[in-house]
Amino acid sequence: MPSKIDKELAFIQSALNLRARRQEILASNIANSDTPNYKARDLDFRAALASAMGAVGGSVALTKTSARHLDAGASSGQAAGAHVKFRATVQPSLDGNTVDPDVERAHFTENALNYQFLVDRATSTFRTLGRALESGR
Asked: Which of 132, 133, 117, 104 is nearest to 24 (CA)?
């Protein structure tokens, strides 16, 4: 049975993986801002995180009937791929490109701040665990 610490660390790991994937997508949008017919994409972070954490109804849960069975959980990369969508365009260019560099940079910065928050949260969790272990001696 997973402990509260295991659940916290699993959440942080999943969220960090998804934030990193979103950063790659946003960077790709910025890099392709001058590419004709390129369509801006983004990750539905909330849906992808819910899927990665198993909160989506309708997913099939697998049961291990032997200690030799491998864990068959979906990786965050697979879950993230299903939640990548095209962004609605505000003002498309004449060449069909839907990337707005200002919007992409704003999302990129916001995502980087959220990523840093998660790193700080993980650091704090490990620091707290270290203090608990030191006080138990």
From this structure: 104
Strands 84-86, 41-43: pairing is antiparallel
Single pTM value for the model: 0.75
- When computed from its CA atoms, the radius of gyration of the chain, rounded to whole angstroms, is 19
Is it the case that residue 60 has pLDDT exceeding 80?
no
Q: How many domains does the chain have?
A: 1
Which amino acid type is present at position 137?
A: R
Q: Is 56 helix (H, G, I), strand (E, B) or coil?
A: coil
* Residue span of the structural domain in which 85 resides: 4-135
C-alpha 41/C-alpha 76 separation (Å) is 18
pLDDT in tens, 91-136: 878 999 999 999 999 999 999 999 999 999 999 999 998 998 888 7
